[in-house]
């Protein structure tokens, strides 16, 4: 019976076409606005590495000078080389990596490709296994290569294609600035969203995929400049060696634990580490070190900014107006058919049958509205991505959101249809028949 | 006009009336808050940067890769740029206003850790910076060419101590003062902080980040060329010569070191557009939400009014037959709508304040100005009248003879 009612509902779309079009349009616009902003919010607050986000930790240390007076400010999530070196040497946890942004001019050894500027990161060999970065060829460099400061590199697939075309990139040389790197691995199109491992707050640096990965030890040995924030609160000696010796902060550190349970143990280790450094005369202020897993980290750096939340709020306000409007329009559409309902009731249809029939019609409207709404949401996302490069990585709809969108609009139509349908069931047949 | 019959008729159609009123209330709450956010964002994106002709100031940032004798290379580049016809002035600097990345440092008036310090953008003037950007001095003087020194980060010779700063920073550092030239302040507030002396005050010069807060006008300018490969060359093109200068600039920089990679060429106007893209995107999103909302609400009113006209055809006929004029019928529907809209507006004003309160505490949204709320109220009243006018006029055209048919 429900199938028949739905069929009837679709056929009835053609009755009072202006009203029908208005209802569908109102629903579609409301769905498009709310779902596109919700998609952005959902992608932003998504977990980029759900399988192990609770086991991947990063940390903050307070190495400000004792008399530093900006105490209200959040600690930045970057560390000194001294600390990163010590943490790496202590080798706690399952895997670990230090990390800092690099950039350089790439000299393609290929006709017709001009020199270009590429972004990358200097990491330790563990990085790829920690982040579950997928290789299409080759693999990570070895720990021995880390130690020997080998000139090796892992590159992203688009860069490999740009430099070497269809040929295999493994074993080929990549010239960046005045150095040659041997390519040992090519990463599949890997784009964790958000790019949690090197994002800090509102900087747009976190939006593009990294193209080149080289060993941290190699980058340091070559005095490769830092691409990203460097903060110094006490004087540093000149040059890169000065930076490495200084209390300037510029590196990130990630550690992967064997299980979530090891976190308490790691926390103890970190406190002990801070105490040991204090004995050496470093980290003079009270211990404010903190550990964050991936989800906590994304919250700490406020990936979801106020503007996105504002958009989402307003979009749902907009949807609510659209819903109220749909209720009114459905009321108008159904009221126009009071006489027909009277006849059906007089011929023996029960209230619940009328209820089911008219609710099916509302659902049919919702289904058509949802198709247009989904198309509209895609259009809106496209516009959002075009207007703000920071949003581009988030303005993508995945199957979950697509299903949610369709479900939401049908649900919205059914909810909007409840009141008008209840009204329809209350038609008194005798009154209607009399007036005809 | 008698209101009582309208009220009693409304009581029979309460659901519809409530729906319209709810819609009006929600719409008013959303659009008045949107309008205030739109105004705030657009105002931020139009702030004066101090640069006098943003579309004529072009910047390019070639990465200098032959890292030998950078001082000479930079001088050669500057000479080549200055020789371009249509170029009025040339400079080299470490960062540009609204360029979104750059240097900052903290400045204080005392070398004690408890002294308040201000974070400010740190510009290097490689010669003729004021002239090239068209910045205005309000006190003191700019740098002479012979004051500009080279700073080599590998050796790190300290920069000169005579500096320019922006008026806003001067006022923040020396509250209550109006003369700043000759005053001493420090880069940092620790005992070993560098001592600096003000030699000139710039009226306004925005930082690369152009923050939303007052810090966007805090900047200090040092007379120096910083010898790293990542400087910005800035040229000031004569009016009308922008296109030709752009091309010549690109070519000149390419010629001095073939195969150079450049991070693009932008006018300060384009830097502004990029910096404020987010603000503008949000503003336009809110504008479209507002327009759609008004459209949706208007369609709701039209739909409901049409329904009521249809349901009351007979009554209208009777009234007309009993002597009511067309004007009376139109007035009836207008008044009815005004009652519903006003009820919606009353609730909407409260909702707007409520929503604003929530948005203010949860998100960085400004307080809703009263005039925005009032404009919103007027707009909703107008919207109601315009929307109902169509159905009301149709009702007025109904023939009195209707009353005599189908009884």
Automatic annotation (TrEMBL), chain A:
It is found in: Cell membrane. Residues 315-426 form the ABC3 transporter permease C-terminal domain. GO terms for molecular function: transmembrane transporter activity. InterPro entries: ABC3_permease_C, MacB_PCD, Macrolide_Exporter_MacB. Residues 20-223 form the MacB-like periplasmic core domain. The chain crosses the membrane at residues 21-44, 313-334, 355-381, 401-422. GO terms for cellular component: plasma membrane. It comes from the Bacteria. It is a multi-pass membrane protein. Coiled coil: none annotated. Keywords: Cell membrane, Membrane, Transmembrane, Transmembrane helix. Its main location: membrane. This is FtsX-like permease family protein. The lineage of its organism: Bacteria, Pseudomonadati, Pseudomonadota, Gammaproteobacteria, Nevskiales.
Automatic annotation (TrEMBL), chain B:
Keywords: Cell membrane, Membrane, Transmembrane, Transmembrane helix. It is a multi-pass membrane protein. Residues 288-400 form the ABC3 transporter permease C-terminal domain. It is found in: Cell membrane. The keyword RNA-binding does not apply. Its main location: membrane. GO terms for molecular function: transmembrane transporter activity. This is FtsX-like permease family protein. The lineage of its organism: Bacteria, Pseudomonadati, Pseudomonadota, Gammaproteobacteria, Nevskiales.
């Amino acid at each position: 019976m429900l199938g028949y009612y739905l069929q009837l509902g679709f056929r009835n779309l053609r009755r009072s076409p202006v009203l029908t079009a208005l209802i569908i349009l109102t629903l579609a616009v409301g769905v498009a606005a709310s779902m596109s902003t919700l998609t952005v919010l959902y992608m932003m607050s998504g977990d980029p590495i759900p399988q192990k986000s609770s086991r991947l930790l990063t940390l903050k240390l307070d190495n400000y000078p004792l008399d530093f007076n900006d105490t209200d400010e959040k600690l930045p999530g970057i560390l000194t080389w001294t600390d990163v070196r010590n943490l790496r040497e202590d080798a706690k946890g399952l895997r670990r990596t230090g990390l800092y942004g690099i950039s350089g001019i790439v000299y393609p050894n290929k006709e017709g490709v001009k020199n270009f500027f590429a972004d990358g990161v200097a990491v330790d060999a563990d990085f790829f296994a920690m982040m579950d970065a997928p290789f299409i060829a080759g693999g990570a460099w070895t720990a021995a290569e880390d130690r020997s400061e080998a000139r090796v590199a892992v590159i992203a697939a688009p860069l490999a294609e740009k430099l070497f075309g269809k040929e295999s990139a493994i074993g080929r040389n990549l010239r960046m600035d005045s150095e040659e790197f041997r390519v040992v691995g090519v990463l599949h199109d890997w784009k964790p969203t958000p790019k949690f491992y090197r994002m800090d707050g509102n900087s747009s640096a976190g939006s593009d995929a990294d193209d080149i990965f080289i060993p941290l030890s190699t980058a340091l040995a070559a005095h490769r400049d830092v691409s990203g924030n460097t903060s110094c609160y006490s004087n540093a000696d000149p040059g890169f060696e000065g930076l490495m010796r200084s209390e300037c902060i510029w590196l990130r550190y990630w550690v992967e634990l064997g299980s979530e349970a090891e976190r308490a143990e790691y926390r103890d280790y970190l406190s002990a580490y801070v105490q040991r450094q204090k004995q050496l005369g470093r980290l003079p202020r009270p211990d404010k070190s903190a550990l964050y897993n991936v989800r906590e980290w994304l919250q700490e750096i406020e990936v979801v900014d106020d503007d996105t939340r504002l958009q989402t709020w307003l979009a749902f306000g907009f949807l609510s107006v659209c819903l109220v409007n749909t209720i009114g329009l459905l009321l108008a559409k159904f009221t126009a058919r009071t006489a027909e309902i009277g006849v059906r009731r007089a011929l023996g249809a029960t209230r619940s049958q009328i209820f089911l029939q008219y609710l099916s019609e509302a659902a049919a409207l919702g289904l058509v509205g949802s198709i247009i709404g989904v198309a509209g949401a895609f259009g809106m996302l496209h516009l959002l991505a075009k207007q703000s490069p920071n949003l581009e990585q988030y303005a993508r709809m995945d199957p979950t959101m697509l299903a949610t969108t369709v479900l939401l609009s049908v649900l919205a139509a059914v909810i909007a249809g409840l009141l008008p349908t209840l009204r329809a069931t209350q038609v008194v047949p005798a009154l209607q028949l009399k007036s005809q | 006009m008698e209101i009582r019959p309208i009220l009693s008729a409304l009581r029979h159609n309460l659901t519809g009336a409530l729906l319209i009123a709810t819609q009006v209330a929600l719409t008013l709450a959303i659009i008045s808050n949107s309008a205030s956010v739109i105004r705030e964002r657009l105002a931020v994106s139009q702030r004066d940067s101090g640069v006098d002709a943003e579309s004529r100031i072009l910047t390019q940032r070639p990465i200098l890769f032959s890292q030998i004798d950078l001082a000479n290379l930079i001088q050669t580049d500057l000479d080549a740029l200055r020789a371009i016809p249509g170029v009025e002035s040339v400079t080299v600097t470490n960062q540009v206003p609204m360029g979104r990345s750059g240097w900052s440092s903290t400045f204080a008036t005392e070398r004690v850790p408890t002294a308040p310090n201000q974070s400010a953008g740190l510009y290097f003037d490689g010669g003729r910076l004021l002239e090239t950007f068209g910045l205005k001095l309000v006190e003191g003087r700019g740098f002479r060419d012979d004051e500009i020194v080279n700073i080599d980060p590998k050796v790190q010779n300290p920069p000169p101590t005579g500096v320019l700063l922006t008026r806003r920073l001067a006022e923040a550092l020396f509250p209550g003062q109006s003369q700043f030239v000759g005053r001493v302040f420090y880069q940092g507030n620790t005992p070993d902080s560098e001592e600096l002396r003000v030699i000139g005050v710039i009226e306004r010069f925005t930082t690369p980040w152009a923050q939303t807060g007052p810090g966007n006008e805090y900047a200090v300018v040092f007379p120096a060329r910083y010898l790293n490969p990542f400087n910005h060359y800035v040229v000031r093109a004569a009016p009308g010569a922008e296109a030709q200068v752009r091309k010549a600039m690109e070519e000149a920089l390419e010629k001095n070191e073939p195969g150079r990679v450049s991070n693009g060429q932008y006018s300060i106007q384009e830097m502004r557009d990029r910096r404020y893209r987010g603000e503008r995107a949000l503003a336009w999103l809110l504008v479209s939400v507002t327009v759609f909302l008004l459209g949706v609400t208007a369609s709701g009113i039209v739909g409901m009014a049409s329904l009521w006209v249809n349901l009351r055809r007979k009554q209208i006929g009777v009234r007309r037959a009993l002597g009511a004029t067309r004007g009376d019928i139109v007035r009836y529907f207008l008044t009815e709508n005004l009652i519903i809209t006003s009820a919606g507006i009353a609730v909407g004003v409260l909702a707007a304040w409520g929503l604003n309160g929530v948005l203010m505490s949860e998100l960085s949204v400004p307080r809703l100005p009263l005039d925005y709320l009032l404009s919103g109220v007027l707009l909703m009243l107008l919207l109601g009248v315009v929307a109902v006018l169509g159905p009301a006029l149709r009702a007025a055209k109904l023939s009195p003879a209707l009353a005599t048919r189908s009884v």
